[in-house]
Amino acid sequence: MHYLNRPDIKVTASYKDIASRWQPEYDDCIRSIVEEFGCFWTAHDGKVFDEVRVRYKASFPGSDGPRISFIRERASQMNGVMSLWRRSFTKFVNSKYVYKLCGHEELVFEAHPTQVRDQGIPPKYCRRCFYLHKELRGVWDEQIINMLRATIDGQRGLQSCKICGVEFVFLQEESTFQPIFTYINCIVPVCRSCYTQAVNGSDEGSKEEHLAKLNQLYLHSGEVPPHNPEQLVLFMRDEMQLLKFLTLLSGMPGSDVYVQHCGSYLQALKDSGILPDGARRLIMGTLVEAEDGHICLSIPERDIDNWLYTANIAHRREPYYPNCGWRADWEVMGCEHRIFIEYFGLVGKEEYDHRARSKLELAREHGIELIAIEPRMDWRSLLRDRFAV
Q1: What's this model's pTM, rounded to 2 decimal places?
Q2: pLDDT per residue over 292-331, tens digit each?
Q3: 114-128 confidence digits (pLDDT tens)
Q4: Distance between CA atoms of 156 and 171, rounded to whole angstroms?
Q5: In whole angstroms, how far apart are CA 319 and each of 356, 358, 371?
């Protein structure tokens, strides 16, 4: 029975729109993707619409759900496509692969489509290591890989927690492969109980004491604490610095308490002395807080930061350009090369334009990919196309 006529399926308007505008010749795009990727083609089904757009200049805007549903249903009804699919499946159905990072063995066909799409066949990381890589991509490099491998290999036996002294086995912890917990244990053994205490913190103390602790955390880490300050451990690779940070964190309340104290988390940052009033005078705009806790210097900056956060693109605020005191607005983390994003909000002013051109030249000199965004630009499409999200 055709998808559109199945009584158990609620067909959306978007699906019906795609079905009404789909032309038979577009089926060649589905066939070519299945021929290229075989039984793993569903990891790349979004490419079908890219092919249709390139070959036939036809676009199908809308959310991914209806588009993917349509493509998979269409493929299942096409002559020859299912046989290609089955032949490829037969080739891989009993293939096993040992992942080098963790030593885990699994059937290649059990790989999640996202693993296949991002890593190819066979994937470089198993599901849990791939999840770690995805969540830690902002700091993922060869050093972290070696540290993680040593952690997995070396912490199969008893370890002594550096905070409380209790012995524990890292690979038997319920929080094993929780990204931040795992990252911490790559640097220093910390049991789940102490980690949980640090993340949960403590509401004890007065407003003044809480603000003082927030400032202490800022001075220790060198970063403005976001809503979830435990993420700041990802900038630390020194054992003593990390242990002190966890100790400070365990005595702090959650961000909701700061909101109760001050009306907003941004105001708490000001009241604590981290961002005092007048500390940053802006030509236009005002300090605003993004969803991930990053402090932005204008509404458009906040919107861009929120988009990066929602798209799960790891980023940090205000990285320095090499060998100078200039900063970019964002750096995208976990890429093969450095990627900066700049929002040039004051283009048209001579001095500002000169600074923007100088930054572009500086980025080229140092092999940095600089994504320049200006007002009235369709930056969402620009970023969506660049990062394939």
Answers
A1: 0.60
A2: 878 887 888 989 999 999 999 999 988 888 866 688 999 9
A3: 777 777 777 888 877
A4: 6
A5: 15, 16, 14
The SS3 of residue 228 is coil
CA 168 – CA 149 distance, rounded (Å): 18
Q: CA 97, CA 31: separation in Å to the nearest integer? A: 28
> Encoding tokens for residue 277?
């009033």
**C-alpha angle 152-154-157 in degrees, rounded to nearest 5:** 100
d(CA 252, CA 210): 6
Tell me how far the alpha carbon of residue 77 is from its chain's centroid. Answer: 36
| Residue 328 Cα distances to 18, 157, 338, 350, angstroms | 41, 45, 12, 19
Q: Which amino acid is at 177?
A: F
Cα–Cα–Cα angle for 145, 149, 155, nearest 5°? 140
Of 140, 137, 144, 139, give the one whose Cα is nearest residue 387.
137
Tell me how far apart the alpha carbons of residues 143 and 32 are, in angstroms, rounded to a whole number: 39
**What DSSP designation does 321 have?**
P
Q: What is the mean pLDDT of residues 14-27?
A: 88
Q: How far is CA 96 from the centre of its chain?
A: 29
Asked if 297 contacts 287 with a C-beta cutoff of 8 angstroms, the reply is yes
Residue listed under structure tokens 């978007």:
14
Cα distance from N-terminal residue to C-terminal residue, the chain: 33
Return d(Cα 162, Cα 166) in angstroms, integer. Answer: 8
